[in-house]
Write a structure and sequence with these properties.
Layout lengths: L2 H7 L6 E9 L4 E9 L7 H15 L1 E4 L2 E4 L2 E4 L2 H5 L11 E6 L5 H13 L3 E7 L7 H6 L2 E5 L5 H11 L5 E5 L4 H10 L3 E2 L17 H13 L6 H8 L3 H12 L12 H22 L7 H20 L5 H10 L2 H5 L3 H7 L4 H9 L2 H14 L13 H22 L2
Parallel strand pairs: 2-5, 5-6, 6-7, 7-8, 8-9, 9-10
Antiparallel strand pairs: 1-2, 1-10, 3-4
Amino acid sequence: MTLKQAIVDDDALDVMLACRPVYSKNQDLAAFQLLLQGSGDGVTLSDIESSHPVILGTYSQVYQDGRTRTIPTFLRVTPEVLLARSLPHLPKKQYILDLDHGLAEPQVLLDQARRWAGQGYRLALDGFGPTDKMDPALLDLVHIIKLDVRRFDDDTLRATVERLRPHGADLLADHLDDRRRFRVCLELGFSYYQGDFLSTAVPVKGRKIAGNQLLLLRLLAELHNPEATPSSLEAIAIQDAHLTWRILRVVNSAALGLHREVSSLSQAIALLGMDEMRRWANLLLVHGSQNKPAHLVRNMLVRGRMCEVMAELSGEEVPVNHFIVGLLSQLDVITDIAMPELMDQVPLSQEVKRALVAREGKLGDLLNEVEHYENGRFDRLTWLNDTSFYEVAYRHSVAWARQIQQALGSL
């Protein structure tokens, strides 16, 4: 069965669904914020009920610290859900009910919050601004208070934190998009952090790609040579015993489904094929970066695979190029080198470089499309006529990324 057929045959949900990471103060993955869009006038109880097995079975499963574990998810409460007398059977350890304080009249919100807290659900309060007056009874009920840090300057944020501290809730800094504000929030005692602050490049002028990645770059250059052979690739790889060992581990990995041991490097490269070898060389390039959150690599894996899947679904000729563009789209974050400077050091085609630097061409267009999906901008999706394939492609990519992380973790 082809990848396209497997995607088409998978069960589609009636909702668009993406997951935004929520980090701990140590920059570990602590939870996901579910980004949901229903097919009608918002997410309904039936949408939640139908998507719950997929959320629990795929999206909330992450590979972290050498093992697969389940992390909680924030589920944004809609007006229909708020007014419901009962919820679908949702594991209370798995879901955090995310309430916007402007969702309903204060007394209605308080009464439902009391009901859910009494049933054992964890509650988060969202939409809290610098000048908003909140019912102390509601603040005492919720477990997490989310503050949109874009709405606060540093002094106002500090005063607000002091005002909220007596209520005992953990604080989450939302829409946190730069490292300086992260440090401010860290000093103020926030427990959770959400935003692009970890995935935004902070280039260091004059920095070069690390020495242990230079051989991989030479390997990539040879992989883009039309005259390349398994022997010519082997001649480069054997200069580093550790790289040779890693390639052999890749080929012998259960993720590739081989049933015999491979001991020759040239045989391993021949078995992989040039496209797969190019894919794994790129994977090894981004894997194991020092002082970077492990979840950043996961994001890059998901993005790369979804670009490739979308390319295959739409009949693009070389889907692996879309994979490379998606995977390397945050290489500047991993290396702390500005993308234009980075492209001067990386042996990629001009088409790939244009996509990475300027989001131009078909490769750049599809990268933009996948980024829209990741960020929940579902109304801006235009690549596929059948929108149900987006969620299935994303789901497949999340599961694939977890499998690859496990394989990379053993290298």
